[in-house]
Amino acid sequence: MGAPLDVLAAFAHPDDAELLCGGALIRSADAGERVGVLDLTRGEGGSQGSAELRAREAEAAAEVMGLAVRRNAGLPDAALQNTLEARRVVAGLLRELRPRVVVTHWRDGRHPDHRAAAELVYDACFLAGLRRFDAPGEPFRPFKVVHAIAFREDAPRPTFLVDVTEQMERRLAALACYASQFDGKSQAGEVFPGGERPLPDQVRAHLAAWGARARVAYAEPFWTREAVRVETLGGVDVSTF
Hints:
This protein is of the alpha/beta class. It has 7 helices and 7 strands.
């Protein structure tokens, strides 16, 4: 068993983590944190590519992002559900990887797998800490569950923003690893088309808008159920004027 992870992105399909929070994951890796991605499915139900091709693309993207680990839960694509068996699988992986923070989908989405994943990951994080829950490994519960809300029009005001200005080019390079999914596209997942603007430009436009709110070039938005604490009033970030 390797060292515990600082951050684990647990998303429905290979490429979801890169699309929704790739910059923040790279920033954590740059800071020396152990970062991992758990793809819940192999993406075998997608319209383009194959499970084998998407696995190769995922490994290439992991290299770009500097991940410490990338795993796949092997749950069914386009049929992901928050079942007891799925919770056991995910809880077992959480017990193995022992992440402090888990990032996952927003609680709604066009793809039913995304909605199911948000609920499944949250429940598995809780259940993994129960001593008598029937899943592999020793009981472990992550400290925090965070939802990535980039590109969502229905999400609430972010709890916090992560400056990804220095990571933006590598974020796009990680997306480019998924040629089977994104080449020539102007939309993907929750990213709707902006006319004929290519997908990388569309991603830039969205993250630039969030960056303006954080007074930086590019930022990614996240939401948590809990409030975020600051140490002192004097350390509060982002200017009013």
